[in-house]
Amino acid sequence: MPNTRWLLGQWDTLQLHNKIGRGERFRKNATLSPTYGNLYHASYPNFVGMERLEDIYVHGVHDAKQLIHVLRDIQAFIAINHTRLPVKLIVIDSIAALFRSQYQTTPADLKRRSKMYFKISGTLKALANKFGLAVVVTNQVVDFIGPHDGVNAVRLGNLESLHTSRRRVGPALGLAWAHCINSRVFLARHQQSVGVNNRNAPSPTISSQTHRTFDLVFAPHLPHASAEFVIRKECAVGVSW
């Protein structure tokens, strides 16, 4: 009996290094989040038995090298069909956080960081092509400092500049990461004054509401587009111009 347990333990260790082992490791390390499914059922109680937002797996990643290993586990996880429905979306939030303190500003580190950019993007594109899924990578923004002309006046796709919360900003990770992506969108936030009708008030009350703007900054296959929306507890709602 002890020998059998030892052999089973060794077999489990070996499994971590093959295709099935990687998929199982991702399933065990990732957290299945039921929160979205509960919110969906509360908002749409008529759709009984539909659990579209139930199979959402969340996996923490602390640096770029770990992300590469997790992406390999995800590939095995998708290949062996662990979920009821096929995986069609991978979201990384955010890519800039992985590079915040791992690399210095020396030429050698900048070269290694740029190489890691292309390695991550190449792995994500390979996953998208192999399994027919979409990949969304969020990036952070940094405050734009400097004159608005000369070398700093580089046009960012369809927009001359990026503004959010009354600040001019630019995408983190610079041009090196910009060359790795296929399409870029920009989400901005600003305060909007709106009138609210109140039965007890003789005139509408002016209140402040947070509006968000979705801009298609760059895409080789799509024209420029923009949309404004607000986020409510139950869903996101578009706003007419």
From TrEMBL:
Question: Which GO CC terms are listed, alphabetically?
Answer: Rad51C-XRCC3 complex; replication fork
Biological processes, Gene Ontology terms: double-strand break repair via synthesis-dependent strand annealing; resolution of mitotic recombination intermediates; t-circle formation; telomere maintenance via recombination
Q: Name one GO molecular function term.
A: four-way junction DNA binding
- The RecA family profile domain, residue ranges: 1-141
Annotated TM spans = none
Q: Which SUPFAM superfamilies match?
A: P-loop containing nucleoside triphosphate hydrolases
* InterPro entries in alphabetical order: P-loop_NTPase (IPR027417), Rad51_C (IPR013632), RecA_ATP-bd (IPR020588)
The cross-references to Gene3D superfamilies, in alphabetical order and at most eight, read: P-loop containing nucleotide triphosphate hydrolases
Question: Per its UniProt entry, which superkingdom is the organism in?
Answer: Eukaryota
Query: Which protein are we looking at?
Result: RecA family profile 1 domain-containing protein
Organism of origin: Prunus armeniaca
Mind giving the lineage of the organism this protein is from? Eukaryota, Viridiplantae, Streptophyta, Embryophyta, Tracheophyta
